[in-house]
Each structure stands twice: as structure tokens, then as C-alpha cells.
Design goal:
mainly beta, Jelly Rolls, seven-stranded parallel sheet, 28 strands
Length: 300
């Protein structure tokens, strides 16, 4: 197969006696020109079907010399996948990997997936990621799963029905969105977190930081303890002067106090404290009407 050198800003005439022109190898992009079809991009892996085209120009418009290996033939050559497994050690920057039908490997492993990446999987395929830094998106179809050992920085994980994700360490700011009948198990949940669950979903948190909320300066005003004996719900009025609302569940409580409404918002077990940096109205809900919580405000 011929190999030619094209100097910067130069062109070479190529005789094309066959029907197909294939670019086997190239050290850069160039243009292929002919009066019959105009100008098209020439680069590694491209194949042109030539009808009554007997010669073309290879034009190097760059400022660097270019080496091109090409082939002219009367048969069309197809490149197909060989199956098996693909192992990618390092996949930097923004990457797209696509496989033709019936040529997708049974599985592939990515050891390090830095920067912004998108991985799309078909049914019954899986991807194992040992380290998933920076911002990542993983989309899975039904009956697929992803195992993430370390999930730092800001992450989004979207799961379909009957899918699950296991996260050993979930630091920094995270968002986890789950569909019906899905669950997520988080062993360590530090810093600020948002978890949105649909009906029949659950979240298990093994270690929850002691202090959760916002501290601010101002005047400290103790309030009467919440009384749930008449109703499981207590409404705290809006106060535009309030900087922080301190809510502490009694150590004698036997159930949870929910800050936000019936089984909504933040659950407080016995002895736990929640500091809310807002002057808006707040609904408190007690699972056990005999339980209580202690209240105080920090105002301007």
C-alpha cells in the first residue's frame, strides 16, 4: 500500500483506478478534492466510494508535513469488532465509546475514569469503576448495576426499576435520585447531602454527622417545648426576624420527630439536634404523641 509525504501547504495527485479509496494511516487530517465531488475530509479509517473518478488531490492545508498511507481497490472492506473484553486503564477528558450491533464486548472494565465521562450500557451489560473522581454521570438500563468503591466530589446517579447502587464512601455534596422499589446504602454520609426518595424507597445511613445545620449570630430566645399530645403535628409560625431555629429531640423520646411534616424532611431520633437557618414556617411531626422536642430561636 502506497505511503506518501505531503509537505505543509502542498498537494499531491493520486491516481484512482479502483472503485474504493481507503485511508489506512495518516499523521493528521487533510482534504481530498476532485471536480466530481468537491472536497471531503481525509483522515484515518475513512473509505470513499468513487464513481468514474480517476484521480483526486490530497491537500495538506496544515503547517506541518503529513504522511498518508492509502489503498485503491475494487472491493469494499468492512471493519468489525472481535468480541471478548476491552480493558481501559485511563480514560481522560471527554470520551465517547460506541460499538456496532453484535460487536459489543460482553463486559469492559475502566480502572480510572477522570474528568467528565458518559457511559451508556445496554440491557444485561455492566461496568465496574474502581475510582470515579470529578463530575460523572452513569445511566443504566433495567437489570444493570454499578459498583462504585470511591465516589468523591459532585456525583449524580440515576437508576431505573430493579437497579441498585452500593456506595462505600460518599463525601462532599451528593445527589441521589431513585425510582420506585430502589434503595441506596450509604456507610458514611459527611458534609451537606440531598437524598430524594419516592414511595416504597428507603435509605440506610450508618454514620450521620452529629451537627447538621447553620450557626449564626443574634439574640437567643428559648421557646416552649413542642406539645404533641393534642395532635401529632405542631406548626411553628413564620418569623422574618429569625436567623436560626434550634430543634432538639428529647433524650426520653421513643419515636422520631420529623422536621418538615409526616415522614417528610429531617428525622430526629432521641437526643439529636437540628439547626434550621430560615425564618419560614416549619411543621413538626411526632411518631409518638408522648414525645417532645425543645425549641429555641436566634433572632436578629
Amino acid at each position: 500500500m502506497p505511503i506518501i509525504r505531503i509537505d505543509a501547504g502542498k498537494e499531491k495527485l493520486i491516481k484512482t483506478s479502483g472503485k474504493y479509496l481507503s485511508i489506512i494511516n495518516s499523521t493528521g487530517s487533510f482534504s481530498i478534492e476532485s471536480p466530481q465531488f468537491g472536497s471531503v475530509l481525509g483522515e484515518l479509517g475513512r473509505q470513499l466510494e468513487l464513481d468514474d473518478v480517476r484521480e483526486v488531490l490530497f491537500c495538506n492545508t496544515s503547517n506541518q508535513p503529513l504522511n498518508v498511507e492509502y489503498e485503491v481497490a475494487n472491493i469494499k472492506v468492512h471493519i468489525s469488532g472481535k468480541g471478548g473484553a476491552v480493558s481501559i486503564e485511563n480514560l481522560p477528558a471527554v470520551q465517547a465509546v460506541s460499538f456496532e450491533s453484535n460487536s459489543f464486548p460482553s463486559a469492559f472494565t475502566v480502572n480510572n475514569l477522570p474528568a467528565v465521562q458518559q457511559v451508556a450500557l445496554e440491557a444485561n451489560q455492566s461496568v465496574s469503576v474502581d475510582n470515579l473522581p470529578a463530575v460523572q454521570q452513569v445511566a443504566l438500563e433495567a437489570n444493570q448495576s454499578v459498583s462504585v468503591e470511591n465516589l468523591p466530589a459532585v456525583q449524580q446517579v440515576a437508576l431505573e426499576a430493579n437497579q441498585s447502587v452500593s456506595v462505600d464512601n460518599l463525601p462532599a455534596v451528593q445527589q441521589v435520585a431513585l425510582e420506585a422499589n430502589q434503595s441506596v446504602s450509604v456507610d458514611n454520609l459527611p458534609a451537606v447531602q440531598q437524598v430524594t426518595l419516592e414511595p416504597e424507597q428507603s435509605i440506610s445511613v450508618a454514620n450521620f454527622p452529629t451537627e447538621f445545620g447553620v450557626k449564626s449570630g443574634g439574640s437567643y430566645n428559648p421557646l416552649a417545648p413542642a406539645d404533641f399530645t393534642q395532635s401529632n403535628t405542631v406548626e411553628l409560625a413564620k418569623n422574618k426576624e429569625r436567623l436560626t431555629l434550634v430543634i432538639m429531640a428529647s433524650e426520653d423520646n421513643t419515636g422520631l420527630i420529623w422536621v418538615g411534616g409526616e415522614r417528610a424532611g429531617i428525622p430526629l431520633s432521641a437526643g439529636r439536634e437540628f439547626n434550621l437557618g430560615s425564618g419560614s414556617a416549619v411543621t413538626l411531626y411526632a411518631q409518638n404523641p408522648a414525645d417532645t422536642c425543645y425549641l429555641a430561636e436566634v433572632t436578629k
